[in-house]
Specification:
alpha+beta; 5-stranded mixed beta sheet; globular
């Protein structure tokens, strides 16, 4: 196996001008995870408009951090190589959640042309620092098969309790 060359990944906070690319990368994430995590979608793209509206609001929210890595190839002006989103949720404090703050990583995705360069790792490190600054008690995420080794390397472990969900 060949040795990877260390590349310094520049992570920055997303701005309004990144909106189209953020929507593109989020759509890519759902395309790639199609039936792994979610029931198949309806095939309609109406959710993309809703996504753009919510992302617009979240770009300036203090409880959301959207981080990106710019593309580096020719003809990629304005294209993003990767993005990741973190959210802090205030829940009720308890004996295992002293301040009630939980972090959630809402998807880290890298454009296929930019994979295996450390972009996801760099984004995750920045998000974890941001969560520490906000004194979250725990950070949750859902990992794809490809992403799981990265998250485990960063210290993520299995939850001790089973995860369940309900859809009305």
């Amino acid at each position: 196996m060949g040795q990877r060359t260390a590349i310094r990944t520049a992570v920055r906070r997303a701005g309004q001008y990144d909106l189209v690319e953020l929507v593109r990368l989020r759509a890519l994430l759902f395309d790639e995870l199609a039936d792994s995590f979610f029931n198949s979608g309806s095939g309609e793209d109406g959710w993309l408009d809703s996504l753009a509206m919510v992302l617009t609001e979240q770009l300036t929210s203090e409880s959301v951090r959207i981080l990106v890595v710019d593309g580096d190839g020719e003809g990629e002006s304005g294209r993003l190589a990767a993005c990741g989103i973190g959210v802090v949720e205030q829940r009720l404090p308890g004996p295992h959640l002293l301040n009630g703050r939980i972090g959630q990583v809402i998807g880290v995705v890298t454009d296929p042309a930019h994979r295996r360069r450390g972009h996801s790792r760099a984004i995750m490190r920045e998000l974890l620092d941001w969560f520490r600054e906000r004194e979250v008690s725990r950070v949750d995420l859902y990992a794809s098969t490809e992403g799981e080794p990265l998250y485990r390397d960063l210290g993520f472990t299995d939850l001790p309790d089973p995860a369940l969900y309900w859809r009305p």
